[in-house]
From TrEMBL:
It catalyses: ATP + protein L-histidine = ADP + protein N-phospho-L-histidine. Residues 1-102 form the HPt domain. The lineage of its organism: Bacteria, Pseudomonadati, Pseudomonadota, Acidithiobacillia, Acidithiobacillales. Residues 329-543 form the Histidine kinase domain. InterPro entries: Bact_Chemotaxis_CheA (IPR051315), CheA-like_dim (IPR004105), CheA-like_homodim_sf (IPR037006), CheW-like_dom_sf (IPR036061), CheW-lke_dom (IPR002545), HATPase_C_sf (IPR036890), HATPase_dom (IPR003594), His_kinase_dom (IPR005467). This is Chemotaxis protein CheA.
Length: 691
């Protein structure tokens, strides 16, 4: 296996696979779209060609079967049906597994024989008795066979006739079945060399097997594409290849001979990281030298290394600014250098950040398949709407959210969306609507997953949580409606009593919450019983640099992410109250939030209002009491690997003065306060990893 070819083949193959799946799903709603049919066919054809260069025989054979089926569909010999769509999608899953085996340095194993047989039957125009079931049925029904014969049509032309016949062998012939050789002979009699896809063999010999030599393969490519074939190089192409004529098959539009022409210059080159690489322009063609290399594939590890180096540069910039600011007397030259360094580092940071940005389309492209399969399994009618595919976000978010997005959709389908009958009885349309949207919000991106289903009953969730031992009855009585709804994110919690292929194991939603936390995002859920549910996730545009606010807690310095902070407050004693065993702060006439005393949590000694300086930092979940707010700065987060997985810190950073500072996890601290606020034995018990 040529590893260089493999490294080039795998990224392109995965892009083709994703495109083929999108187009196949489009075929389900628009089966007569010739452009989409041709696109899927080309994907399988290209996948097969690349696999042939890698000598991945099983992948070649598998894509060949799918290519046969698509060839019949695009020539309208067959029409698109539901079983065909199912077979193609399952065939794409097999190709995905084979590509993973290639990525691991192994030749792919053969695909499942049952599915292979079904695909071959569909391509032959035979509907399987039990399509897409684990047990493969016979090629034809047990009580009949298919008989192929050549007869004259009404207008006197030769034609092939396919008919069902009794399975009992004829006493004259012994069997109505025909062999592969007889079928080929019939095709030759009908079409001769005009059959679709026919390529004349070399004059020197007529091969006895179905395999073709590399020379024959090259000749076919030259006839089809000439010098327009992907990767064609005029320096090494056979002479005169572009002048070979291509004979059009009956019923197909003629193909003109291909001539060498300069590749058109694109109006707007795509982003290097967010768009697939364009085919290279033909070398040696006039006018193509300047546009030949508009894109470049870069290994993700190299890009991550550049981002880490930019992070270190940001830290050095901060230390330089701090050092110059601490000089006893101002030096205009040093101040000017510091400002120029600051601008340059900002530009570099912005450029590298854009290199890592990818469109949300890459994150959303698997969702139609998820909805299609789950809705069929649950016998529900669902329409999926996707908005904001062009919104760009950091590559780390796109990579990490693939699994959580699947969990959210499956959860919405299983728990949120009602059956068609129940929706109709409630006065709704039989078909439910699930909406996935990506929205750009300044320095953040919000991703919403919403449905118009039954919503979430908070009392039902509380009772299920008590029954499953997730919370006690006393804790359930103190929960607000919003806190009750958020119980669905607890590990091990599920409202299903039975485990199914879709849900019931208590995993999924907790994975969503943990992933959002690791990505420094914000998770919010809004629901209205009978009307639907919306889950929102907000993420920073870049994961490389984190703006933080430095806080002083007595003699120690901590940091909080700026993205989690709403405002700074002067704490007034008259606004502190005790409700349901919790200490809360009344922000205004309507908003009441829990108080997080960092002194009690981190130092095991509460801050004393009136006896020592105290300032308040209001976040979306609670009010943090600290000794002093120092200021904000861009930081680079470093993981703390030696702490337990459940701790109170997002990581650590180095301040402008060169000190190591712990970055607090606001959500983890508020959750700890809410869980232990009424328990006197744990009120001042620090969490694992507390200072």
């Amino acid at each position: 296996m040529d590893m260089e070819i493999l490294q080039d083949y795998l990224p392109e193959a995965r892009e083709l696979l994703e495109k083929a799946q999108d187009d196949t799903l489009r075929l389900e709603s628009d089966p007569g779209n010739d452009d989409v049919l041709a696109s899927v066919f080309r994907a399988f054809h290209t996948l097969k060609g690349g696999a042939g260069f890698l000598e991945a025989e099983n992948l070649v054979n598998w894509t060949h079967h799918l290519e046969d089926l698509l060839d019949k569909l695009r020539s309208h010999t067959l029409t698109v049906t539901g079983p065909m769509i199912d077979a193609i999608l399952r065939g794409l899953d097999v190709i995905d597994d084979m590509l993973q085996q290639l990525a691991n340095g192994e030749y792919p194993a053969p695909g499942p024989e049952e599915l292979s047989g079904i695909i071959r039957q569909l391509a032959a125009g035979t509907t399987p008795v039990e399509p897409l079931q684990p047990t493969l049925p016979a090629c034809t029904a047990p009580e009949a066979t298919l008989k192929v014969s050549q007869r004259a049509t009404a207008d006197g032309q030769a034609g092939l006739f396919l008919e069902r016949a009794d399975a009992t062998p004829s006493p004259d012939t012994g069997s109505d079945e025909i062999s592969a050789e007889e079928f080929e002979a019939t095709l030759d009699a009908l079409y001769g060399t005009q059959a679709p896809g026919y390529a004349p063999p070399p004059e020197s010999q007529c091969a006895a097997s179905d395999e073709i030599s590399p020379e024959e393969f090259e000749q076919v490519l030259d006839q089809l594409y000439g010098d327009k074939a992907p990767g064609f190089d005029t320096e090494i192409s056979p002479k005169g290849a572009e002048d070979l004529p291509v004979t059009a098959a009956p019923g197909n539009p003629p193909v003109a001979s291909v001539q060498t022409a300069p590749a058109p210059s694109p109006a707007a080159p795509p982003s290097p990281t967010s768009q697939p690489a364009a085919p290279a322009a033909v070398r040696g063609s006039p006018g193509t030298q300047e546009t030949a290399d508009v894109t470049l594939r870069v290994d993700a590890a190299r890009l991550d290394a550049v981002m880490n180096q930019v992070g270190e540069l940001v830290l050095l910039r901060n230390r330089l600014s701090s050092a110059i600011g601490s000089l006893g007397e101002e030096n205009e030259d040093m101040l000017r250098i510091a400002r120029e360094v600051d601008l340059t580092v900002n530009d570099i940071q912005s450029t590298v950040m854009r290199l890592r940005m990818q469109p949300c389309k890459r994150l959303f492209q698997q969702l139609p398949r998820v909805v299609r399969d789950a809705s069929r399994q649950l016998s529900k009618e669902v329409a999926l709407e996707i908005v904001g595919e062009d919104v760009e976000i950091d590559k780390a978010v796109v990579d990490a959210l693939s699994g959580p997005m699947t969990h959210l959709l499956r959860n919405s389908l299983d728990h949120g969306v009602e059956s068609p009958e129940a929706r109709q009885a409630a006065g709704k349309s039989r078909s439910a609507k699930i909406r996935v949207a990506a929205i750009h919000l300044g320095d953040k991106v919000r991703i919403d997953v919403s449905d118009d289903g039954r919503g979430i009953d908070s009392q039902f969730v509380i009772q299920k949580a008590i029954d499953k031992g997730v919370i006690s009855a006393e804790q359930g009585a103190r929960l607000s409606e919003q806190e009750a709804v958020e119980l669905i994110f607890r590990p091990g919690f599920s409202t299903n009593d039975q485990v199914t292929d879709i849900s019931g194991r208590g995993v999924g939603m907790d994975v969503v919450k943990e992933t959002v936390r690791k990505l420094r995002g914000r998770l919010d859920i809004q629901t209205r019983p009978g009307l639907g549910t919306r889950i929102s996730m907000e993420f920073p545009l870049t994961m490389a640099v984190l703006p933080v606010l430095y806080l002083r807690l007595r003699r120690e310095i901590y940091a909080l992410p700026v993205s989690s902070i709403e405002s700074l407050l002067d704490i007034q004693k008259t606004r502190i109250h005790r409700m349901s065993g919790r200490t809360v702060y009344r922000v205004d006439g309507t908003e009441v939030v829990p108080i997080v005393d960092l002194g009690a949590l981190l130092h095991e000694r509460s801050l004393r209002l009136g006896s020592e300086p105290i300032e308040g930092v209001l976040t979306e979940r609670g009010l943090f009491m600290v000794s002093e707010v120092l200021g904000n700065e861009d930081s680079v987060v470093k993981p703390i690997d030696f702490l337990a997985e459940q701790n109170w810190y997002q990581g650590a950073t180095i301040s402008g003065k060169g000190n190591v500072v712990l970055i607090l996890d606001a959500n983890a601290l508020v959750n700890h306060v809410l869980d232990h606020s009424s328990d006197p034995t744990t009120k001042n018990t620090p969490c694992i990893g507390a200072a």
